[in-house]
Write a structure and sequence with these properties.
The protein contains five helices and no strands. By secondary structure, it is an all-alpha fold.
Length: 94
C-alpha cells in the first residue's frame, strides 16, 4: 500500500520534528502503520545517499542541493518535507 503524498510529507515532517531527539510517541500516534514507517525510513535512507559535490560550498548550500535532489526524485513531497530532509542530511554530515 502506498501512502498518499500529503500523508508521506506529513510523516516525514513529523518524524524529523525534534530531530535528533526522538518524536516516536507523537509519530506513532498519528502514523501507526508499518507501511508509513517503512516509507519514511526509505526516504531518509535515500536522502543520505544523495551524491553531493562538496567543493567550497557551505553546509547550507549542501542542504539546498540535497533538498533539490530529493525534490527532483520526489516532486510529490511538500516544500516543508523537502526542507526537513535537507536539514536532516546536513545535521548528519556536519
Amino acid at each position: 500500500m502506498t501512502e498518499p503524498a500529503d500523508d508521506l510529507s506529513e510523516a516525514v515532517v513529523l518524524h524529523l520534528k525534534r530531530y535528533p531527539s526522538s518524536n516516536d510517541e507523537e509519530f506513532l500516534a498519528r502514523f501507526s502503520s508499518a507501511a508509513t514507517r517503512e516509507a519514511v525510513r526509505a526516504i531518509l535512507d535515500e536522502t543520505m545517499h544523495v551524491r553531493v559535490e562538496w567543493g567550497q560550498k557551505s553546509l547550507a548550500e549542501i542542504g539546498d542541493e540535497v533538498r533539490d535532489a530529493m525534490r527532483d526524485r520526489h516532486p510529490e513531497l511538500s516544500h516543508t518535507a523537502l526542507h526537513q530532509l535537507g536539514n536532516y542530511y546536513t545535521y548528519l554530515v556536519k
